[in-house]
Specification:
Keywords: Calcium, Repeat. Helices cover 53% and strands 5% of the residues. It is mainly alpha-helical.
Length: 77
């Protein structure tokens, strides 16, 4: 059985197209587009990045990603 952390890490790696260990806004947008229009709006993507980017570097590292999605807060109610 896969833990929530393992599942979130797998999602992070799937979104991290260039494998550098950081998610850029472009990588998040591409992942959203892959959902075929069922994903987040542009404003939701921007809010996600802003809320996850704790160190202000403009990218989202694994721990920042885990801080949001690791607890299911990324899912719409």
């Amino acid at each position: 059985m896969t833990s929530a952390r393992e599942a979130a890490e797998a999602e992070f790696r799937r979104f991290d197209v260039d494998g550098d260990g950081l998610l850029t806004a472009d990588e998040i947008r591409r992942a959203n587009e892959a959902l075929g229009g069922q994903g987040a709006s542009e404003s939701e993507i921007e809010a996600f990045i802003k809320s996850a980017d704790n160190d202000g570097d403009g990218t989202i590292g694994l721990e920042e990603f885990m801080g949001l999605v690791g607890h299911g807060r990324h899912e719409k109610a």
